[in-house]
Amino acid sequence: DASKSADQMKKCLPLIKDLTALHGKYKELVEKCFSSNHIFVKALDQAFKSFVNNEVGGFNMSELLSFYCDHLMRSQKRTTERELEVELDKIVRLFCYLEDKDLFHESYRRMLSKRLLSKKDSNEELERTMISKLKENAGFSFTAKLEGMFNDMATSGEIIRKFKDHQSSNKTNAIGFDVAVQVLNSNHWPINQNCTLTLPKALMPVEDVFGKFYAETHQSRRLSWVHSQGSCSMMLELKRRHELTMSTYQACILLHFNAARTIAVKDLVEKLGITEEEVTKAVEPLMIAKHKVL
Predict the structure, then answer these.
(1) What is the pLDDT of residues 141-166, one digit of tens each?
(2) How many angstroms separate the most distant Cα atoms in the chain?
(3) Confidence of residue 289 (pLDDT cuts 50, 70, 90)
(4) At what angle do helices 248-256 and 276-288 cross, to 10 degrees?
(5) What is the pLDDT of residues 64-118, one digit of tens each?
(6) How many other CB atoms sit within 10 Å of the CB of residue 115?
(7) Radius of gyration for the alpha carbons in the chain, expressed in angstroms and rounded
(8) Is the pLDDT at 15 greater than 90, yes or no?
(9) Which of 16, 133, 154, 286 is the most buried (most CB within 10 A)?
C-alpha cells in the first residue's frame, strides 16, 4: 500500500538528517585538522559508502534519499530558499555514495512528477537547482528526463494559451468551463498510460474539443488521455454552495449521482469502465472525510 509505505518512510527521515549532519561534521574535521589530506578524504568516503548503501527499515537508501528530497521540497514554505539549497548540497554529497543511483533516479522522477503536476508543491527555481546539482555529479544523461519534464510543462503552457485563444474566437465549439490540459511526453514522465475511464456526458467535450484542436496543430503526434493524474474543481449545492477540488475519478462518480440518489459500486464500475478497486479508492474519501460528500 503506497500510503503505508510513505508513512514508514517518514519514520526514517530523521536518519537522513542525522547522516547529512554526521558527514558535515567529519568533512569539516578532515578539512580543518588534516588539510583535506587524500588519505583521510578516502577513509571518509569509504566509511560512508559502506553504510549509506545498507537497507533501513526495508527501504533502500536510494529510495529514502529521494523521499527526503520530496519532503524538503514540499515543506519549503517553512524555511528559506538558502537553507533549502544548503540541505540539497548535503543530500547530493550522500547521493554520490549511492551504488544504486538508477533507483534514486526513478524514485526521484516519480515524486517530481507529482510535485510538478500539483504545482502548489513545486518551486521551479529550486527544482532546477537540484537537477543542476545532480547533473554536475552524475552527468547529462542522468538528468535528461528530469529536464525534459520541465520543458514539457513550459511547452504545455504555451499549448493551453493557444487553445484558450482558439476557444475565445470559436464560441460555437466552446467547452463551457475552464480546462487546463497538461500535454506531456511519455518518454519523460513515469505515468501509467493504461487509463480506461469513460467520462460522463458533462465532461466529454474536453476530450472532443481539445483532442480536435491538438490533432489540427500537431498532426504527427498521438494524444492519450491519462485521467488518473487529473484533478477537478466542482461546485456542490448543499445548504449553500461549496467548491471542492478532487480527482477526476471522484468528479466522474459525483456527476453520476446527479441522476440517481443511490448507485451500486458494480454499476459505477460498468459506467466508468475502471476497476472496482479504483472505484472504491475514489469513493472512500468522499464517505469518511470530516465533511462527508456521499
Answers:
(1) 999 999 999 999 999 999 999 998 88
(2) 76
(3) low
(4) 80
(5) 999 999 998 887 666 777 888 899 999 999 999 999 999 999 999 999 999 998 8
(6) 17
(7) 23
(8) yes
(9) 16
Q: Nearest 5°: CA angle at 187, between 183 and 192?
A: 75
Q: First-to-last CA distance in the chain? A: 24
C-alpha cell at position 249: 475519478
Question: For residue 157, which amino acid is it?
Answer: G
Closest to 243 (Cα-Cα) out of 171, 183, 177, 288: 177
Angle at 127 between CA 58 and CA 21, to 5 degrees: 55
Residue 129, sorted as left (phi over 0), alpha (psi -120 to 50) or beta, turns out to be alpha
Q: What are the Cα distances from residue 77, in Å, to 13, 87, 122, 202, 273?
A: 18, 14, 11, 37, 40
What's the rounded Cα separation, in Å, for the pair 74 and 120?
9
Compute how many other C-beta atoms are within 10 angstroms of the C-beta atom of residue 202: 14
Task: Round to whole Å and give the CA distance between 149 and 116.
Answer: 8
- Tell how far CA 157 is from the center of its chain: 17
Cβ-proximal residues to 39 (8 Å cutoff; 6+ apart), any chain:
none
Residue where the block lists cell 506531456: 184
Give the model's pLDDT for residue 281: 92
Q: Which tens digits make up the pLDDT trace of 165-176?
A: 888 887 767 787
| Contact between 112 and 149 (Cβ < 8 Å) | yes
Range name among 42-46, 182-186, 218-222, 247-251 with the lowest pLDDT average? 218-222
Residue 243 bridge partners (DSSP): 235
